[in-house]
Design brief:
With 396 residues, the protein is α/β, with parallel strands linked by helices. The chain has helices spanning 18-26, 43-50, 62-71, 77-93, 102-105, 108-117, 120-134, 140-149, 181-195, 238-246, 253-261, 277-286, 295-318, 341-351, and strands at 33-36, 54-59, 162-163, 171-172, 205-209, 223-228, 319-330, 332-334, 337-339, 355-363, 388-395. The chain has 14 helices and 11 strands.
């Protein structure tokens, strides 16, 4: 990427490799419109913008939308610093009785969740900071929240009582915590300020909440190229960790649970469309799982097949004829059984009249897999997940 070095602003599991995004967007005509319908942390759009293109991103995960939106939106860094400093200062003096957090105060389930995962000292500080951030002006509010979220979504102990939240495997490891949330927030503001864009790199990027299975806001044939990395079946439960952050930005636990239950790749039985039953059965048979999978787990796989078919039908609809489509996927295990996610995607693409042009396999270094260190994996199904990823190049 030459002199430009990609520097993420927030931890995020299984980010797309920037070198893939760079390679696949470099040959496109300048000012092309790039779509990532499952945008995650926004790497694909960040690199696309650097290469002089416009970008559209969607995700069902609110934290992904916030992170990728902030990472790709130029703001006045001086104003951001001033606002952040004012919030940190006010958080040290404001009285708790003057702090209102409706999504928490009015919801017993969310309050119990917070009490379990956070210490009293950190709860008080987070309430103050989230209250003050919510009163901040657009477009700074999201950036100010990302600085706060980084203190929670971390590998080691941060503002919560849990570890490994950034890997979407939060587990409570402490009963108390001496983490100075407000002091660390001041440091996080400076970190974010160094990595935020001050100017538009390409033609601009927009990111919004949206479902890749129904891209209703995009017209037929509007997109020049698609670059995305779909969720792997049963591999990473993003919302499991992200909800520890999102409850501090106005999201009640029940809302996040609903989002999680409807995500692609979730373990939920499908509402099978009669139109796709034969195709789904054919793809399932091609996986050659035999009797290894229970009826319930077969339902999860069929749900994933149906979801990805809907995704590719939408990708085909919105992409210009002949447009480039690049998908990065990894294979995974479900209850110890190896699942060919790449085969599912290829069949769904072909069924959607998308041509497969090239398939390449890329080995992932253990340090990049967002899993426990290899020495801890010997007795775990996780050791079989995400060792490699497959780059599938297609044409609409």
């Amino acid at each position: 990427m030459g002199a430009y070095k990609l520097k993420p602003i927030h931890p995020f599991p299984a980010r797309m490799a920037p070198e893939i995004a760079l390679r696949e967007t470099s040959g496109l005509k300048r000012n092309s419109l790039i779509l990532d319908p499952m945008v995650g942390s926004g790497t694909s759009l960040k690199v696309s913008s650097f290469n002089g293109h416009r970008g559209i991103g969607f995700d069902t995960d609110p934290l992904a939308v916030i992170i990728s939106g902030v990472w790709n939106t130029p703001i006045d860094i001086t104003e951001f610093k001033l606002l952040g400093a004012e919030i940190a200062k006010d958080a040290k003096t404001i009285k708790l009785k003057d702090v209102k957090t409706p999504s928490i105060d009015g919801d017993e389930e969310t309050k119990k969740f917070i009490k379990y995962w956070f210490g009293r000292k950190q709860i008080n500080a987070l309430r103050k900071l989230s209250f003050l951030i919510a009163r901040s002006p657009y477009p700074y509010q999201d950036a100010l929240f990302v600085a706060l979220s980084r203190l929670i979504i971390s590998k080691n102990i941060g503002a919560s009582l849990a570890a490994d939240i950034s890997h979407s495997r939060p587990h409570k490891v402490k009963a108390t915590n001496d983490f100075d949330t407000i002091a660390e927030y001041e440091k996080s503001l400076l970190f974010i300020a160094k990595r935020l864009p001050e100017r538009r790199l390409g033609g601009g990027v927009s990111v919004a909440i949206g479902d890749a299975r129904n891209l209703s806001t995009i017209k037929n044939g509007q997109i020049d190229a698609v670059l995305t990395s779909p969720p792997y079946l049963n591999a990473i439960d993003y919302m499991r960790g992200h909800k520890l952050s999102l409850v501090w930005y106005g999201s009640a636990l029940r809302e996040l649970r609903e989002i999680r239950s409807n995500n692609i790749g979730t373990e939920k039985m499908p509402i099978m469309s009669e139109e796709y039953k034969l195709f789904i059965a054919d793809v399932y048979d091609s996986l050659a799982l035999g009797r290894l999978v229970s009826r319930r787990h077969r339902g999860f796989i069929e749900r994933y097949i149906q979801d990805m078919l809907l995704v590719f039908k939408e990708i085909k609809r919105v992409t210009k004829p002949g447009g480039r489509i690049v998908v990065v996927i990894g294979n995974s295990t479900q209850r110890g059984i190896y699942i060919r996610n790449d085969l599912i995607l290829r069949k769904c693409a072909t069924e959607s009249s998308i041509r497969i042009k090239q398939i390449k396999t890329r080995v992932l270094p253990p340090s990049k897999r967002y899993l426990p260190p290899p020495t801890l994996l010997e007795a775990s199904d996780l050791k079989n997940r995400m060792r490699k990823e497959i780059v599938i190049k297609m044409q609409a």
